[in-house]
Structure formats: structure tokens, C-alpha cells
Amino acid sequence: MINKKSIWFLTLFSLILVLSIYYITMPSELLLTTKENYNQQKETKETEEETKVTMKESDLLTSLRVEANDEMVKEMDELKAILTSKDASSEEKNNAFDRMKELNSVRGKEETLEKKIKDEFKLDSFVKIDGNQIRVVVHIETLDKKTANNIMRSIQSNFEEKMYISVKYQK
Known about the structure:
Elements: H1 4-25, H2 35-51, H3 57-84, H4 90-121, E1 124-130, E2 133-139, H5 145-156, E3 164-170
Parallel strand pairs: 2-3
Antiparallel strand pairs: 1-2
Helix pairs in contact: 1-3, 3-4, 4-5
């Protein structure tokens, strides 16, 4: 059974996780210290947006990361609600706690794989693990079969069981 210390630890850990994700995804303009700098920068950005609207290739990877983080935060909030619920049984609470640990573990693996691709292949990437399926989106103009195959082998070397890995490239 989960005691009060565990619940407090889990609550505080979840709060820290949510706040750190919010801080990382927060626009840099919110970090400005003076109102004048904020207004000046806002005016220049508005004129830049009017003249030039382009989407960088890395923006896709960023949007995929933000979307994945939003999904994770939403699921963590649901699990946290189960943990703090008085009506939930101890089995439901244990399952929710195990699922939270699993989510954190999967996110750590995804970040490790992204770093490995960056180190080995010098490519920006997004990795999403869903059970035994791994989806990799790589930021590159064209992806040849040899590079894709090497990425798949490199990722598979981190797992003992057979994983279904798909590699897509994004221009």
C-alpha cells in the first residue's frame, strides 16, 4: 500500500516534472525582465512575421516533442488523480504508480536514443516508443536506405527483444 510519504514524493515529483516541461517549452519572450524590452521585441517580431512566414525543418521535430510531452503530462495527471483518489483501490493505485514509472522510463529511453542518433549520425531526430514499436523522424534532406538501416540497427542494439522500428525523414 502506498503511504503518505510516497504520495507526497510522487506529487512533488510530478509537479517538478510539469513545471520543468513548462519552463522548457515556454517562449523566450516571457523571460524578458523589462516591459519596454518586451514591447520592443514584440513590435519587431510582428513586422518580421508580416514580411516572412517560413517554417524551419527543426520546427517539426520541436512540435512533435511538444505534442508527445503534452500527451505524457495529460496521462500523468490522470494517473496522479487516481493516486490521490480516496475511492481508488490499492491495486488501482499500484497500477497507476507503476504506469507513471513506466512513462518516465520510456521518456528516458527516447531521449537516450535521440542523443545516440545525434552522436553517431550527426542528425537531429525525434523518437517515439509505443510498446514494441519505435518511430524515428530524422531531419535530413534525403535519407538513403543504408543510413536508415544503420539507424535501425543502432536502435535495436539497445533492446533485447525484437522491436519494430520505422525511420522517416523530414525535409
